[in-house]
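The protein record filed here:
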Amino acid sequence: MKTERIIIEDKEQPEEELLKKPAEILRKGGLVAFPTETVYGLGANALNEKAAGKIYAAKGRPSDNPLIAHIADFDDLPPLVSAIPEAGKRLMEAFWPGPLTLIFPKSELVPYGTTGGLDTVAVRMPADPVANALIRLAGVPVAAPSANTSGRPSPTTADHVCQDMNGKIDMIVDGGAVGIGVESTIIDVSGDEPVILRPGAITQEMAFAVLGKEVPLDPAIVSGPMKADVRPKAPGMKYKHYAPKAELTLVEGETENVIRTINRLAEEKLSKGFRVGIICTEETKEKYPEGMVRSMGLRAREETIAHNLYGVLREFDDLEADFIFSESFSRDHLGQAIMNRLTKAAGYHILNAGRNADCVHD
């Protein structure tokens, strides 16, 4: 299969004429990668079980890992769901369109091939003008996980998509670099109480402000990898995700201890001839004299770290790093999403610099 690529010059007001062909591909059951405000998505008709199956095949994605249906208007939601709980209504009003996915009881219209066999459906209304216009033109809800090989760092540019998907899909819509850089927050509103299944740019604190009560994290997020026989409720919960090819270790603790520990570990690996990557911030990058040092942004501006996270991980793949050592970040606000992605990318391999001992969660 030859993958066609079209470039959207004006991403704020994309030309409808340019999007007619990818919209038709989606409508007829093909695969189109396109930008959203979070990461690039790999789209297919969410109501076409065969088309959804093509997503799983192209990504090498486990079939029990559910997909998110993307819509362009509020009126597109009722046909997909059997109920819209009050908490869902309030969150939609506050954050749609935007980087929030909500899980509802599904209607009979949505095939199990899209929901990973679940009786619930995940739905999002992206704010990105290209995504929104493309979905509206397609005239169908668009299932769209991240447009990467399953397990790899998510794509934040069309070039990243090309690296993983060229020759596997029909078209890539190039809308430039995405804005946020980590996937949407997922909140399950299908049960008695809302639960966060994946942290993102819509933070726990923001959900609290809307609902007037704490929205807890699902225990599976904080307790380590899910067991093999457990069916995940949402993307990103069960399987290895976001991982570079190199072995990644997160180092936690006081800043000076973290810097000292990373430098010691890097020196050990470098002395044995390995290629070593170091992930840090603008505030600390001058503290690392050896290795391939990459800053993800400013701690004072967590959005810069989120924006650069996957690009840095992919860069270390290009540089053929053998080992990567990363500083850790706060676990509140947007830092919660950053640490969720890094922890999964590291396979829960976390080193506490204070105790100078491995804390691997099995």
User: Anything to note?
Assistant: The chain has a mean pLDDT of 93. The chain is about 30% helix and 20% strand.
